[in-house]
C-alpha cells in the first residue's frame, strides 16, 4: 500500500486499538498462522468441557469465535479496562461470564472449579494458580509467544540486543508446569513470517502490541518511522519472524 508518510502515520495513530482484533491490518500486514490451528483445537476442548475458564481473554475475540459451549458454564478473565468492556460486549450473547482480574495470583475462583483452562498469548502464566483451579484430570491449553518473537521489530527501533530465550522458552514452560504438579502432554513450536506493507501498519501494531517497543509513541520514534517508511517503499515490505508454542498440560487424577 502506497501513501504519504504523514498521512499513513496519522491515520494509524488515531485508530482505536482496544481489543484483540487485527482486522484493521487486512491488506496492510500479514502474519503466517501456526500450523496447529489454536482456535479450532480450543473449540474442540471447550465442547467437551463442563466448566471452562479463558484467562487473559483480551477482547474475547478468540472465545467468541468458537461455536462450541461448555456443558455447565464458561468464564473469562481480563485485566485491562478497555479490553474488559470489549470482552463483555463480545461474549455477553455467548453466555460467557467475564470477570475483572488483575492477572496476578490468586485467581478469584475456588480450588478445583474448572476442568478446562485456556489462554491465548498470556502475558504471564501463573502455573500454580492454573493447577489450583483445575479439577483432577482437568486440562490447561494455551498458545504462547515464543523466544525472541518478532525481534527484528524491536531491534529496528531499540537497537540490536543479545538474543535470549528468557521467560518465553517452551522448555521453561514445561518445567514450570511440571513444578506445579501438571503433566505436559503436548508441546509444539513454530516460526512464522510477518510482513508489513506500509508504515501505518507498523504504527498500529506497535500501539496495540505494546511489549515490542514499550515506550512507543509516534512523536518519540518519528525519525525511525521515517527511515522504516523509506525501507518499505524501496523493498516492498518489512519482514520479521514471530515464534509461537502450543502447550497442553493435565492435572493428574487423584490430585485435589
From TrEMBL:
In the record, which residues are listed under signal peptide? none
Task: Tell me which Gene Ontology terms the entry assigns under biological process.
Answer: methylation
Q: Which GO terms describe its molecular function?
A: S-adenosylmethionine-dependent methyltransferase activity
* Record-linked InterPro entries: 23S_rRNA_MeTrnsfrase_RlmA (IPR052939), Methyltransf_11 (IPR013216), SAM-dependent_MTases_sf (IPR029063)
Please report the stretch or stretches of sequence annotated as the Methyltransferase type domain.
53-140
**Alphabetical keyword list:** Methyltransferase, Transferase
Superkingdom of this protein's organism: Bacteria
Q: What name has this protein been given in UniProt?
A: Methyltransferase type 11
Q: Where are the transmembrane segments?
A: none
Q: Which Pfam families match?
A: Methyltransf_11 (PF08241)
